[in-house]
Amino acid sequence: MKLLLTGGAGYVGSACLRWLLKHGHDAIAFDNLSEGHAAAVPAGRLVQGDLADLDSLARAMNDHRIEAVMHFAAVASVPESIMQPELYYRTNVLGTKNVLDAMVQNNICRIVFSSTAATYGFDNVMPLTEDSVLSPQVPYGTTKLAAERMIRDYAHAYDLGFTIFRYFNASGADPDGRYGEDRRRETHLIPLTLFAALGVRDKVLIFGDDWDTRDGTCVRDYIHTDDLAQAHRLAVESLQPGMARVYNLGSGIGVTVREVLTACEQVAKRRIPHECVARRPGDPAVLIASPDRAKRELGWKPQRENILEIVATAWQWHSTHPSGYAG
Questions:
Q1: What domains, with CATH codes, occur in the chain?
Q2: Which among 120, 140, 167, 222 is annotated as catalytic?
Q3: What is the pLDDT of residues 79-91, one digit of tens each?
Q4: Tag placement on the chain: N or C end, fewer CB within 10 Å?
């Protein structure tokens, strides 16, 4: 299948691109490289362009005879979204509209969309199912939910088929150590902890140790990028016009911040400097997925659910690429 991946040079997008190529698909990345990296994309697979440029998007879809779109491109930091909501509405909402408009222009009727667990309310019973209350607490989640609803409206009007994936914590790196996470402003716990292990950072910060959890630190659900990629392949291969599907993508296993720290110390074989500080705005105490629907309907089966295994792949990447792709 001929596929266009917006944000296909980013962390998750490029992992999915490489997975799709390995499994016989003709996949192209469309990325402005503001966060993504050309080095994360195999040669000849990158079209440099911006979501804000509808003509460029439509031309890329036409030139490559695209049959389905995977829309990864977004801005995705909770703290930043609180400080810069305009950026999030412009990129995540208007950018999605341009993707959909370009699809309609090119008679493309299948889209797989990367959404987020931040669309759910904090007061839901854990683990979260796809039917849990949607009540985002931060602009990042609000803009992603707005994009979800826009996709539904376009699907109804233009007979599109869609799969929406609500990610939990994307983690890890390619097992061969060649590709991994390299964000210009890193906010994710595992890489920040490993940076402290490598001396790239002085220490890792733990935002609150008085939460109502088993060790006082926040609980999150970590899912390896290979497992995310597997789900995207299964989704696009089974997607048909008129289909409407929403799935959580997580392991269903909750891991505390301290447990992540311990796993990183075991893998790196050293003590990692850390400090407990005040809670961070926008953080829930616990965020865990129920991935049962994706397993049942897509036949999806995560292969790396153990936090030690996930951290080990991340350590292999960061310890050999301390400067990311620049190194």
A1: 2-170+223-249 (3.40.50.720), 173-220+252-326 (3.90.25.10)
A2: 140
A3: 899 999 999 999 9
A4: C
